[in-house]
Design goal:
It is a single chain. This protein is of the alpha+beta class. Helix content is 51%, strand content 15%. The chain has an eight-stranded mixed sheet, sandwiched between helices. Strands 3, 4, 5, 6, 7, 8 and 9 form a seven-stranded antiparallel sheet that branches. It has a six-stranded antiparallel sheet with strand order 12-17-16-15-14-13. α10 packs parallel to α26 (723-742), α11 (342-360) runs parallel beside α26 and α13 (407-420) packs across α14 (426-434). The two termini are 66 Å apart. Residues 1-88 and 277-287 have low confidence and may be disordered.
Length: 881
Amino acid sequence: MTERAETVRGGRGAAEPHDGTALAVPGLRADGDTAPADTGTDTATGTATATGTDAATRAAAGAAVDAAVEAVAAAAAPAAAGQAGPPATRAAGLTSAEVAERVARGEVNDVPVRSSRSTADIVRANVFTRFNAIIGVLFAIILVVGPIQDGLFGFVILANTLIGIVQELRAKRTLDNLAVIGEAKPTVRRDGVSAEVHTNEIVLGDLVELGPGDKVVVDGTVTESDGLEVDESLLTGEADPVHKRPGDTVMSGSFVVAGGGSFTTTRVGREAYAAQLAEEASRFTLVHSELRSGISQILKYITWMIVPAAAGLVLSQLLVEDHSVDEAIRRMVGGIVPMVPEGLVLLTSIAFAIGVIRLGRQQCLVQELPAIEGLARIDTVCLDKTGTLTEGGMDVAEVRPLGGADPAYVRQVLAALGGSDPRPNASLKAIVDAHPADGAVGWTCTGALPFSSARKYSGAAFTEPGGEDCTWLLGAPDVLLAAGSPALAEADRLNERGLRVLLLARSSLALDDPALLAGPAGTRRAVESAVEPTALVVLEQRLRPEAADTLRYFADQNVSAKVISGDNAVSVGAVAAKLGLPGAESTVDARTLPGDREELAAVLEDGTVFGRVTPQQKRDMVGALQSRGHTVAMTGDGVNDVLALKDADIGVSMGSGSEATKAVAQIVLLNNSFATLPSVVAEGRRVIGNIERVANLFLTKTVYSVLLALLVICSQVPYPFLPRHLTLLGGLTIGIPAFFLALAPNSERARPHFVRRVMRYAVPSGLIAATATFTVYLLARHHYTGPDALAAETSAATLTLFLVALWVLAIIARPYTWWRIGLVLTMASAFVVVLVTPFLQDFFAVRLVGTAMPWTAVGVAVASAAVLEAVWRWIGRRFPD
C-alpha cells in the first residue's frame, strides 16, 4: 500500500485505473517523454486554436493536441469499459524549455486579475463627475467676474476630491495586498514535479492538477482522472456533478466536487470560456448598492432643477433688479452652488474606502465594495458547521468494532482507506493521523470512490495480503444503514453528545455499481442491503473558541442564525447547543424537507438547525428565505457551499476554504476567524447609518437653496446671498461636521428605503430653514435703507440661516456624546469668530448692523428650531422604521 502511494500516485497524481473511473496514458514520444500540446482545441467544435504563431505552427500545434487527446481517449477506453488496460504512466507535463517557448510566443494565461479599480479609474471616478463639471464651470465664471472669495467653493471641491482620491488609493493598496494573500494558486506539473504557480503563469499545454474544491481556471482536456466529478452549475445552471474521464473537456469557471486528476490546458487567457466573466467578477465594483443608487437618484432630480433655477435667477437679477452683469452672475452662482450636494458623493466613497481599510487590518478581504453595506442589512445568516462553527480539523476519539469484528483487522482497513485517497477530507485526515498507511502493509488498492457531499460516503476496493478482494465504504451511518439497525441506534446516541460518527462497512457491490456511484437518492435500499456494518469511527470536532460570542452577537442584533450542514442533524444540534445557539435543541433532517419553496420557507422560518443538507438543498434554502423577504448571508468553506454562497445576498468564505468558495464569495475572512463577521456587520452599519445622517444635512441645504431661489424669482427681489456666504454656511453646518459624522461609530441596524427616509426629514427641514431665512430677509428689507442696505439685509439673513442650519446639525448629531457636543459648539464658535473679527467680516461680507434686526433674526431662528423639533418628533412617531 505504501509502495503504491509512492510509485503510482506520485504525490498529487491520480490512482491507477479501476472500475468506474479511469487513468489516462498520454501519448509518448520516441524518447519516452510526454508529448505536450502546443496549442488548444476548441471544445465546442474540436478545431484547433492558437495564439501568437503562424498558420503552419497553428496547424502543427492543433494536430499535436488532437493526437494527445486521441491517445488519452484510447488509453482510457479499456479502463472505462472495466478491462485491465495498460499500466499507468504519470504524465510529466511540460519541460522548462517548453514553458519558456510558450511564454515567448505569448501563449500565457494573461487575463488580468484585479481586486480593485485601477489608479486611473479611481482618479477618473473622483474628478470627472457630473457635479464637479457643474461646480467647475461656476468656479471658472467667478474667476472671471471676481472677487476670489466668492470662488472659495471651488477650492473646497478640489480639496474634497483630493481626499476622496487619496482614501480610495489607500483602500486599493489594502485590497491588492490582501488579494495577493488570498490568491488562488493552481498546482501545475512541469518536468515531472508538481508546484503551485500564479494563475497568470499558466501556459498553453500545461498539465494542471485538480483536487476537491479546486477551481478550474482555464479550459482544458482531462488527462488523468481519479473519480473526478466537476460541478459546472456556475456555467450551465445544471446542479448535478459531471463525471469526467480522460478525453473529456473541463471549462474554466467549474470546480471539483469529488475525486481528483489533471487536465491539459487547451485555451488560456481571454480565449478561455469564462475569462471575461471571471475578470468582471473579480473587479472592485460600486454597483448593486441601495445607498449609492439612492444617492444617484437624488442627484439626477437635482440636475433637472439646476438649469431652470439658474436661468430664472439670472433673468430676475438682470431684468427685475437691474443689477450689473457681474453682480447678477455672482448672485446666480450664489443660488446655484448650494443646490449641489457634491460632498455627499465624495463622503460616501470615503466612508466605504475607510471601511475597506479598517476591515483589511483584520485580514478581511472585501471583494465587492457593496458587500460592506449588504452584510449590514442582513437579517438571516446561514452557517455551515464545519469550518465555521468548528475548526476544519478533527480527532479520532475511538473506534467501536461491530458484530465481533477484530479490532486489529479494523485498524488495517482504516489504514488502507486512509492511504487510498491522495486528497483526504477532514474526516479522513483524522483517520490517517490515527491509523497511518504503514499499518496496512500488503494491502493493494485496486480502485477508489472519492467522498462526495451528495453521496455522504467514500469507498475503496482492495486486494488483501491473502489475495482476497474486498470493497469498503466509509460514511454517514444514517445514509448507509436501514432504519432500526442497532448500529444506527448506537450512532445516534453518540451524535447526541455532539460527536461525529462514521460507519466503516464492507460492501458486496462493486465500486462502479450505479447504486454506489449515484448515492442513496433513489437507490438507498440497494445500498443498505449490500452493506455489512463493521465499525463505528467516532470523531471529536474542535469548536471554534470565538463561535459562541459571534452567535451571541447575532442574537443581540436580531439576526437569525440558521445552521445548515451536511452532517447528522442531531450531532450538528449538539454542537450548536454547546455554543449557546437558541433553538438548537430542535433539529431537522433535511431529507424530510418539502420540495415546494413556500412550504420549505415555512419550515426554515421555524427551524434553526438542519442536518444532512445536500449542496442543492443549501441553495434552495437560501432562495426560500429570500422569497420571504429576508436578506441572507451565507458562510462556508467547502465545495458543498458554493451554490448557496453564490445565490446568497452576501457570501462569506473562510480563507482556508476551497478556491471555488473564495471565487464566488463577496467577503473572504483570510484569518479564518468567524469572529471577524461582527466587525464586518458593524462596519457596514457604521457606513450606512452615518451616510444617512450626513445625507440629511446635504439634502436639507439642497431643499432650502431651491426654495430660496424660487422665492426670489417669484418675489422679484435681489438674491440675498453671495457664493462666499453659502460657502461659509455650508462649511460650518455641513461640510466639516459631515466629515466627522461620516466616520463616527454607529451601530444602528441598516434599514431599507434610504431615499424615502432621508427626504422625509430633509424636505420639511429645508422648507422651515428657507421660510425663516426669507422672512427675516423681507423684514430686513423694510428695516434698512441707504446704499449699504443690501449688505445689512444679507447679514441678517445669513445669521438666521446659520442658526437654523446649526439646529438641524444639533438634531442629526444625536445621541449626544462629548465629541458631538464639542463639534456643534466648535462650529458655533467659528461663526462667532467670523462675526467679531474685522478681517473676516470684510472677507465674508458679513457685518451685523444695529441690534433690532440681529435679535429679530435670533428670535425667528429660535422659533424655527422649536418647529423643527416638533416636526422631527412627529415624523418619527408617524413613520417609525
